[in-house]
Design a protein that fits this description.
The chain has 245 residues and is α/β, with parallel strands linked by helices. It contains seven helices and 13 strands. Helix 2 packs parallel to helix 3 and helix 4 runs parallel beside helix 6.
Length: 245
């Protein structure tokens, strides 16, 4: 199976790869003229043949447009910042599971030191999204938003979902929360917003903000999952229950 890479744009029957990606392809993978790769500009996928390999640029000739899977479910993940190794694992798996947008949340129980350091990690996080998108053969890289406080996130990103049938779910450890299976049962939608809190859980203020934005509180069962595990489990459940294709 050919590897997939992203380029800025297609220009006629040509495409150029620059910067870190070009350096990796040319210097690390030792790419040579004539080799074939799949290329995506975020909208379509083409089979490209390497024409020239420069130090920090690779030039391709485009041979044919390829069929590419595009998800019908648009999922926004509101994810509280947790320890960076766990957070980055969650970013990787969320990308593989088709999430469209990721909003890092400055939740009240997120560690303040992690929040302060988040801005310096943003470029690393974007690289993780790109690499995970290439590995999982996505057409488009998820959008990574800036660190956002819950009041803005619950209001802004929930209201951006136009569909009246959009699913808005907030994972909760509350004994009153219904199971995610129950909440998703019988629903069909092309849009979802999923909120996952920090290891210390949501505060009552955050629950109130989410309820005002029409989020349903959902449980993943009696066992307490780590944040990154909850990301993988809940996104897989959303995909299974809501995907229309």
């Amino acid at each position: 199976m050919r590897r997939r890479f992203f380029v800025e744009k297609f220009e006629g029957q040509r495409a150029n790869m620059e910067g870190e990606a070009a350096h990796h392809l040319g210097r690390v993978l030792r790419a040579q003229p004539g080799q074939l790769y799949e290329l995506s500009d975020g909208s379509s996928v083409w089979l490209g043949r390497i024409a020239v390999v420069h130090r920090d640029q690779v030039n391709f000739e485009l041979l044919e447009e390829l069929s590419a899977y595009k998800a019908t479910l648009e999922t926004t993940l509101l994810l509280a910042v947790v320890k960076f190794d766990a957070f980055e694992w969650a970013l990787e798996k969320a990308t593989e599971l088709g999430v469209s947008q990721i909003v890092p949340l400055a939740a009240e129980h997120s560690e303040k030191g992690l929040l302060s350091a988040s801005a310096k990690r943003a470029e690393r996080w974007r690289r993780i999204l790109v690499e995970s998108s290439q590995q999982s053969r996505r057409v488009q890289v998820p959008t990574l938003h800036a660190l956002t406080k819950p009041d803005a996130a619950f209001g802004n990103f929930a209201s951006q979902v136009k569909s009246q049938d959009a699913v808005r779910v907030m994972l909760s450890e509350s004994p009153e929360a219904q199971s995610l299976k129950t909440i998703l049962g019988g629903k069909q939608s092309n849009a979802a917003v999923l909120a996952i809190g920090p290891e210390g859980g949501w505060t009552e203020t955050e629950f109130t903000l989410a309820r005002k934005a029409s989020f349903a509180e959902a449980s993943l069962g009696h066992l307490i999952l780590r944040t990154e595990t909850a990301v993988a489990a809940s996104l897989a459940a959303l995909n299974y229950a809501l995907t229309l294709d």
